Each structure stands twice: as structure tokens, then as C-alpha cells.
Amino acid sequence: MITRPYCYYYVVAIAAVLLSFSVLFVQCQVLDDYANPAYNSTPLPQFTQIVYGRLSNLTSAILTPSVTKNASFCIKNPEAEWDLAFNYSSNLTFLSSCIQKTNGDISLRLCTAAEAKFYFNSFIEGGTQSVPNKNCNITSWVSGCEPGWACSVNPTVNVDLKNSEDIPSRTLDCQACCEGFFCPEGLTCMIPCPLGSYCPLATLNETTGLCDPYLYQLPPGQPDHTCGAANIWTDVVRSSDVFCSAGSYCPTSIEKVSCSSGHYCRMGSMYEKPCFKLTSCHGNTVNQNMHAYGIMFIVALAALLLIIYNCSDQVLSIRGRRHAKSREAAARSVREKAQARKGWKSAKNAALNHVRGLQSQFSRTFSRRKTVTPGEELRILSQTEVETDDDIDPTTHAIILSSLERSSAAKPSGVMMEIHATEEDPDIRNAGTEVEDKNVKQPMPKKSHLHSNSQIFKYAYGQLEREKAMQQENLTFSGVISMASNPQIRKRPVIEVSFRDLTLTLKGKNKFLLRCVTGKIEPGRITAVMGPSGAGKTTFLSALVGKTVGCKMTGSILINGKNESIHSYRKIIGFVPQDDIVHGNLTVEENLLFSARCRLSANLLKEDKVLILERVIESLGLQAVRDSLVGTVEKRGISGGQRKRVNVGLELVIEPSLLILDEPTSGLDSSSSQLLLRALQREALVGVNICMVVHQPSYTLFKMFDDLVLLAKGGLTVYHGPVRRVEEYFAGLGINVPERVNPPDHFIDVLEDIVKPSTSSGISSRELPVRWMLHNGYRVPPDMLQNCAGLAILSARVTLNDQMDDNAELGEQSFAREVWQDMRSNVELQRDIIRHNFLRSRDLSSRRTPGVLLQYKYFFGRVVKQRLREARTLAVDFLILLLAGACLGSLIKMSDNNFGAASYTYTIIAVSLLCTISALRTFALDKLQYWRESASGISSLAHFLSKDTIDHLNTVIKPAVYLSMFYFFSNPRSSFTDNYVVLLCLVYCVTGLGYSLSIFLEPGPSQLCAVLLPVVLTLISTQGGDGTFVKNLANLCFPKWALEAFVVANAESPVVMQYGRAREFLGV
Fold first, then answer.
1. In Å, how far from its chain's centre is CA 776?
2. Which superkingdom, per the lineage (predicted)?
3. I want to staple 886 with a disulfide (CB 3.0 to 4.6 A). Which of 80, 242, 275, 965 is the partner?
4. Within a 10 A sphere around the Cβ of 883, how many other Cβ atoms?
5. DSSP structure string for 561-607
6. Which helix (H) or strand (E) holds 41?
7. HSE, side-chain direction, 13 A CA sphere, residue 987
């Protein structure tokens, strides 16, 4: 079967009429001569070929730009499509038959340019009733005006074929149209039917009184009037009578043959088309049944999805095991070398002790002592110090070092250089470098860039072994000296935060969250913030790091004594939130490594980043779970305590200068809390300013803090100072801690009025904040003094100029005023959120983190791992698409009469729903993690681009998955490529819609909108009518353009439809 593209039928009517008057132009010279006896001897076939040959030469002259202008949206190549529709060269039977039937009078019966224009205008306007004209009107209605009939002009009349204004008088010799032509009602001329149509002579149906198959009636009162030829040529929306019916093919416009078995013939077919293998095609088959291919695709894709579903984690697991083996081998090698060095040092120390004993014996024996020069003494002491580093007291070791530095200004001796060079592991800094003779002075090895994982791990674990040798397990004074004197530990910028009269008031509520808080947190110290529930502890930390929104803040916060924004130092500030905001589908090591890569200095070498990572993992006790997934609510991972430590580790790996932690010990047992505090103490030794909220710590933990900020309800300060003096201060107020009672528990019970102070102290919990202000000489708000009646003697300190606080509670307000204030506060809250998230301050941290491109690389690697671990979810998405394609393709058959619009409408709804809902997961599931990373300075652009890049793969695959079922079950006229391109654009559009919903809305509303929007927009797009508002609204809906693209794809394919009517069908 060979079908012809009929999209151009928007203008094929006028083209056909132009063809008719082009025939007239030729036949004026030829066909009239055929009626002449001089030409009766010419054979009819030869004469017909002459006529058709001269007719074909006029094609280029007829298809002028003015003719095809209105059809430029559909006609791509007018000459080629004209040839497909009107190339009768293979069979001119209908033309020869008409020449014989009209006795050579065919030229006088074909339409002229004026009649073509008349018919074309009525065709475009979509009218179904005949329009009056010169030949057919209310006063003149000849039999040729009836459908299927035509008349001839007077042979003596000179007809101007190019005259498109005047319709010639055509009322003579009216008779039925020739088969292969159609004669519209209201016109008395003939138009040839295009290829792919079936225009036989009609026959009268005695039962219905209609002329089959064209369904027009004979005029009453004219018994001699018979059924003629076709009365209309149009698209399948108006009438399918003139098209070759489905299940048959028409080699010419006057011949119809039933489709044989093993072939199928769609409407408008000229030849039958063989069916594919494994398809069922019986006689008169309209379309081949390709369900077998669909079932084969379902089985193959289902098997593939099952493999992905069950084996998605294997790639990452195998890679992780290989990585772990390399790491464990490096750690084992370093430990073995460390033990060997320790044994070698022990043997050297024993030998040296033996030599010293012999020397002392000789000295006592000969009662004299050899004079030792200062340089040799220094060499001996230095050698002894280095060689017995693990055995002597660390405090003595530090004292010896300081005394040696003071006593000698010279450079270290050669022996010291040799010993350090000998003890340096040659495999850590330079792999393959051998230790030379100790008598030859060698330069200190320089640090080079390491490449292999084995070298990097050896370097990291070697450094960790050295750090272990420099400090005791419990961080004694000697460990502090060793840490401070270690040149390999990088010094960090110092951040001191001081605050004075810090007050936070909730906007619109006139409620104090913090009030008159004054003090500072210093570098190198761990400050604990304690207090009862509702005391504003978390608010206090949020205010220090500039994370408060919806609040009015007064007072001042100074950074290193300067009035600068804390956001200028956000690259070196770590904030650990109260909730464990970590990626559950990543391992512990992957979470920490990503944070280190994106937030550490870009100039830091890879091996140094790995060293920092290994140091944090070891200090937090996460070695056993480093390769385990953190886990989510649906999928179990590490324990809650380990998750809490990972939450802290995300900030430790960036080597911050200021570390703020919100309840890091909540949910941890005593041992885990102590482990965490030891890790924080180590950070404090290198100058990190640490401030953390703690809820009722144990006495052991309490003594590990350096400073304490104790807050009462209302955000008032009760104490701010060293931990070792807190009991002394409260004892001075008459509040003594009973024996066997934890001090912080007792103080909080006093603030909660659970424990009353002794009557001899004469103080209440409400007076404690005022006592602290007066103790330090701070200004006391007058309302606080008034509430403390027992402090009348202290009220004299308040000056007369003190006024009532502006934020004091106001009187009762009207309901309208309260509503207005609530609306105003909500607007201000959203403004603060936008300002906090999008406004950026000048960077003063002096740390150059990786740029957008490098962060995009890190994000891309992370998203790939997440997608591989979520492959099961993706497999389910693909499986649902397969089932949707199979169901819609099977249940809703593709019809030529409605452009397949019904099945494509359901396709748009189904694909839009499934792809929009799946796109919600891209940003909705890790929105909290995004806000945390964005607040720390990580690029939002890199975050978006990485996820969008990965989702592009799904965008490309999903249309193919859906069409693999839908196309083979429905078998539309348009090609697979055309359907794929349209569906690809649709998926890309709805994916962006899902992005927008997940970013700007909460999960609940975004899911509701993702379900409703595709359905509602599709209904709007398919609404008919002439309403301007509805049409303008439909132009803004993506389903309208998707459906139109599908219809155009079918119209441009070999299909018996035309695009102009397709637009009318869509109501556009």
C-alpha cells in the first residue's frame, strides 16, 4: 500500500480547480480538435497522453507563491506534494473515459479561476450550504447546480481562464459528472478528484432515496434527473465518502480493490502494504495487529527493569569494597611501620641507657668527668630527646624543647637532621625513595602531589600515627603543648564574637525571645549554652550566626571587635543544626567527603583533604560505619547516635574558625558524648571558637566545657563566665549545690522553680537575671526592676532618663488591628527569608573555595551515586510508563476520522501526570539539605545543574519507554520519530513544571498541583467554541501545543486528513 501525504489538502481544492482550468487551457487547442473530423483518426490513449503531458508542464506556473501562501504552515514542498496528489501518469483511464463521455466537451465543463476562487472561499469558511452565484441562485437553478452534476459553457463564448472575478455563464447541456471528478452543489463545473480518493458514479438507493455512497438526494419534480458523481471533496471530518475506504485500496480514483490477506490498507490507500512478521492481517484489514511486538517489548523491558531493580547497588558496592581494601592495606602498612619504628626506638633507648650506665661507672671509677663542649651537649640532648620521645614525660619534653631553643640560637645540628630524615617514612611523602647512608647529609623531603589511593591513604594514616604519638588519649597538658607546637597543623583565622544588649523581639507579637544578653565567646574555648525549655538557647545561637528571621533585633554583635556581618565569614563558620540534616542515600564517608571538597580551600591538595577526613572519622568514632548508608525513614541505616556524629562531622571537615552546635549531644549516650567532646576539644586547641547548646549534661561533660552561658526563660542571662566559677557565683547568692547533685541540673531546676532557694538567701528565680546585670554593671530595664520588688535598694541605680521599653506589651487591640498585624508580620517574615537566602555579603574569610564548575563536578558525582541507589524507584517509574502505554494503546484505537486526538489526549494526560510527579522528587526530597548547604556558601547553581543534567537522561528515556508500548499497540500513521520528538518536548516541559512546584511549594500542595494541573490544562486546551478568552487561555497551556503537534505529525504523514480541518477539530 502506498498512501500519499494529504496535509496539503488545505489548498488542494484550489489546486484541483486550477488543474481543471489548466486542462481547459490545453484542451482549447487540442480537445476541440479531437471533436473535429480531421482528428478522429487519432488514437484515444495517445491523445490522452498528449493532453496530460501538456498539462504537467503547467504545474510550476500554477503553484505560484500567492496560491500556496495561506498553506505555508502545511505545504513544505508544493511541487512535490502536487505531484503526489495529481500525478495521474500511471493510469489515465478516468480522463479518457470522461473525454469519451463528454464527446470531447470536457474543456467546457471544467471550473475556471473565478469558480475556483468562489469554491475555495466557501471551503475555507467551512460552510455546508451552497452560496448563490451567477449560475445558481434563487431565480436561476439549472440541473447542473444539483450535487454531482455539471454543465457546459457556450462554445461561442470566449472564456478568459485567468479572470478570477467573473464566473462564466455555464448552463448548457447539463449532465452527470464524470467518474473521477466531483461536482459541488451550487457550481456547474467539474473538479478532478485527487489520488487516494474514490469518486465513482453514484447509484440510487431505492430504500433510502439517497445516492450512494455520497448521501445526496435527487431533486423533486425532475424524474429524468439521475444520480451523478461525487458532490463534495473534503477532509474526513466533514465527510469520508470520497476517500478510498479503510480495508481497500484505490489504484485510481474510479477503482477500488479489497485488501488481500497478509496486507493492510488504511483509508486513502493507493496500494496495499505488506504486514510485518508476527502480525495478524486478514482480508480487508485496516491496520496490522502489532500486539506481539508490544508483548515482546514488555517482556524484554520488564526483565531489564528487574535486573536494574535487584542489581542497582552492585556497581557502587563493588567500587566501595575495592576502595576499602586499598584503605585498609594502607592503614595496616602504616601501623606495621609504626610498630617497627617503636621497637627500633625501644632497642636504641635500651642501648643508650646501657651506654650511660657504663659511662657513669667509668666516671665513678676514675673519679673524673670529661669536659663536654656546649655543641656536643646540645647534640646529645637533642638526640636523646628525639630517640626517647615516646618514653619521657611530655611536660619534661616541652620544657627541654623550650630550654634548648633559648640556649642555642644556632640551626639544628646535623645529628638532628639525620635522625629526622631517618625516622621520616620514605613511602609517605615520596614513594620509592630509599634512605641513604646516615653519615651523608640529606635534605628534608618535599611534599609532592600524590596520585594513587594507596599513596594518599599512607600519607593520611602516617600523619594520624604521628598525631597520636604527640598527645595522650585524654589530652593532658603535655598533649596541649605538643598540639600547639606541631608545625604540620595549619593555623586557622581567629573569630571572636562579642555581643552587647542583644535583644530579639518577635515581629507582630511584641514577645521577647532574647533580652539584654551581653558577653562574648572566645577562640580556643568551648562555650556551653544551657537553660530550661523556652529560654531562647537556639534563638541565641541563630542570632550569633545571622539566621534569625521574623524577628526585630536590637543591640550589637561585633566580629573581632568590628561591626561586620557574620555572613562575611560564612565560609569558615560551621553551624550544626538540631536536626540531623544529612543525605540518607549516601554513606558516612561520602557525606563527609563531599562537604570537605566543596567547602575547604580549593588550593588544598587531595591528600590533605583525605587527611582531614580520616582525622574527623577517627575522632568521632565512625570507622566501623564509614561505608554504611546513613539511612532514611523508609530505609534503615546507621544508629541515631552515629547519625548525630555525622551531622557534626559535616562541619568539622571544613576546619572552621567558629563552630556553632545546636544540641549535638541530644540522643547520645555518655560515652558517645565524651567522644564528641574530645573531638571538639582538639578543635579548640587549634584556635576554633566553639559554642554549643547542651541539655543537662553529666558532671563529666560539664567539666569539659570552658565557659557557660546560662539563660532563664525569656532569653535573660543568669550567668556567663568560666565553668569553674559558676558554683562560686551562685554560692555567693545563697544557692548552693547539694551533694551528689549535678550542678547544671540543680541550676536549671532553680530557674524552673522546681527547687526553691533557701529562705536565708532572700532571692527568687525571677531576680537572678537582674542580679547578674547588677553584678556586671549592665543597664537594667525599668520593668524588670519593677517586677523584682525585693530589689528596691537597687532601683536607685536606674537613672531618671530610663524610659519604659519600646517593646513592652501593648494594651488590648481590636480584631481588625490584630489581623492587619498578622498579615504584616507574615509579609515581613517572607521578606526576611528572601533576604537571608539570596542576599550575599562581602567575603572576609580569606578562603577561596572551589568555583561553580568544580562544585558542579562534585555535585554530579554525588547525584550519580544517589540515582544509582534510587534505581529501583526509577525502574518502577519506567514500569508504570510501560503499563500506561500498553493500556492506552490497546484500549483507545487510533482513528483516521479524529486525527488520533482521543488517544493523544489521554497520552498527554498520562505522561504529564507521571513525569510531573516523578520530577517532584528531584528537589523536594532533599530541600532541607539544600538549605543547609546553600547557607554555608555552596553554589546553588551547581546543585541545580547537576540534578538537571542527570534528569536529562530520564527525559530522553521516558518518551522512548512509553512509545515502545503505545506506538506498537496503537500503530498511528505518524512515524515513531515524530511521536518521540513531540513526547520529548512534552516530558521536558512537565519536568520543568515539576521542578517549579517542588521548589516553590511544600510537598503536600506540590503533589496536589502536579495531579490537577495536567488534567485541567488539557481540558482547557481541548475546549471548543468561539470564546476569545478561552482561546487565549488555551494558547498558554502546554497540552494545546502538544496535541496540535501530534495532529500535525499525523497530518504531514501519509494520511487522508488536512491540516486546516485539524485546527478546526482542535478548536484553535
1. 54
2. Eukaryota
3. 965
4. 15
5. TB---GGGGGGGEEEE-SS----TTSBHHHHHHHHHHHHS-TTS-HH
6. none
7. 24
Confidence (pTM): 0.73
Distance of CA 798 to the CA centre of its chain: 59
In angstroms, the CA 1039 to CA 1024 distance is 14
Q: What is the pLDDT of residue 36?
A: 39
Q: Quick one: pLDDT band at residue 950, thresholds 50, 70, 90?
A: very high
Other Cβ atoms within 10 Å of 718 Cβ, number: 25
Pairing of the two strands 526-530 and 689-693:
parallel
Report the alpha-carbon angle 43-45-47, nearest 5.
Answer: 65
Residue 30 has pLDDT above 80, yes or no: no
DSSP track, 840-887: -PPP-S------HHHHHHHHHHHHHHHHHHTHHHHHHHHHHHHHHHHH
Task: Look at the chain and count its residues.
Answer: 1068
Q: Which three cell numbers stand for residue 412?
A: 639544628
Residues 1068 and 1023: their CA atoms lie apart, in Å, by 9
Model confidence band, residue 229 (pLDDT cutoffs 50, 70, 90): confident
Mean of pLDDT values over 426-430: 39
Q: What separation in angstroms does the CA of 189 have from each of 168, 177, 195, 214, 938?
A: 10, 9, 20, 18, 77
Does the structure show a pLDDT above 80 at 549?
Answer: no
What is the percent of the chain where pLDDT is above 90?
A: 20
29-38, 320-329, 644-653, 917-926, range with the lowest pLDDT: 29-38
Spatial separation of the C-alpha atoms in residues 220 and 417, rounded to whole Å: 126
- Looking at residue 808, its amino acid is A
- Unique residue bearing C-alpha cell 507574615: 826
Residues 6+ apart with CB under 8 A from 422: 435, 438
pLDDT higher than 90, residue 2: no
- Return the half-sphere exposure (C-beta side, CA atoms, 13 A cut-off) of residue 243: 25
Q: Which residues contact 717 (CB under 8 A, 6 or more apart)?
A: 516, 517, 518, 519, 709, 710, 711, 769, 772, 773
**Edge-to-edge order in the sheet of strand 216-217:** 203-204, 210-212, 216-217
Question: How far apart, in whole angstroms, are the C-alpha atoms of residue 210 and residue 216?
Answer: 6
CA dihedral 278, 283, 286, 287 (to 10 degrees): 0
Q: Which of 63, 23, 335, 268 is nearest to 161 (CA)?
A: 23
Q: How far apart are alpha carbons 833 and 822 in whole angstroms?
A: 16
**Angstrom distance (rounded) from CA 683 to CA 702:** 18
CA–CA separation, 450 vs 58, rounded Å?
Answer: 79
The whole-number pLDDT of residue 832 equals: 67
Query: Residue 513 half-sphere exposure, CB side, CA atoms within 13 Å?
Result: 21
Short-list 328, 235, 246, 327, CA closest to 284: 246
Dist CA 30 CA 28 (whole Å): 6
What is the helix (H) or strand (E) element at residue 551, kind and residue range? strand 551-559
| Strand duo 716-722 + 573-576: pairing | unpaired
* Closest of 668, 694, 690, 670 to residue 680, by C-alpha: 690
CA distance 498 to 520: 4
Burial class (CB in 10 A: 0-12, 13-18, 19+), 987: buried
Copy the grid coordinates of residue 505: 523581639
Q: Is residue 766 within 8 Å of 788, Cβ to Cβ?
A: yes
Contacts (Cβ under 8 Å, ≥6 apart) of 592: 613, 616, 617, 646, 649, 650, 653
Look at residue 656 and tell me whether its pLDDT is greater than 90. Answer: yes
Which is higher by pLDDT, 253 or 422? 253
* φ, ψ at 722 (rounded to 5°): -65, 150
* pLDDT confidence tier of residue 837, bands split at 50, 70 and 90: low
274-320 pLDDT tens trace: 887 777 777 788 777 777 777 777 788 778 777 776 776 677 777 77
